[in-house]
Amino acid sequence: MRLSPAVKYTLGRVGLFVVVSLLLWPVPIDLLVKLMIAIIASFGLQFVLLGKWRNEMIGQVDQAVTRRKADKAKLRSALAGEDDGEV
């Protein structure tokens, strides 16, 4: 089973948040402050640790956008009667 790059990247981001939260658990500060630190730290770490997965996700999104633009152009030309005799 192969995960989608977007799912893999999202799970990686959530995992980073959980790991940082667990590392901050024994620190004697307010829970809300711990969670805010975990959010900020996981945001920064994702740029370093999840770069490959982020690039895979960007590639997947780019392919989907390119495919949709091609389909849209094909449909527009078919509706305008500019197709190559295909019915």
Question: What can you see in these coordinates?
Answer:
By secondary structure, the protein is an all-alpha fold. It has one domain. About 80% of the residues lie in helices and about 0% in strands. It is built from 3 helices and no strands. It has helices at about 5-25, 30-50, 50-80. Helix 1 (about 5-25) crosses helix 2 (about 30-50). The two termini are about 40 Å apart.
Helix/strand order: HHH
Total individual domains: 1
Rough outline:
rod-shaped
Bin the strand percentage.
under 5%
Q: Distance between the terminal alpha carbons, to the nearest Å?
A: 38 Å
Mean pLDDT reading: 92
Helix content: over 70%
Radius of gyration: 22 Å
Total strand segments: 0
Outline the biggest β-sheet.
none
Helix tally equals 3
Alpha-beta classification: mainly alpha
Note poorly predicted spans.
Answer: none
Protein name: DUF4229 domain-containing protein
Keywords: Membrane, Transmembrane, Transmembrane helix
InterPro entries: DUF4229
Transmembrane segments: 7-25, 31-50
Topology:
Blueprint: H1 5-24, H2 31-49, H3 51-79
Helix pairs in contact: 1-2, 1-3
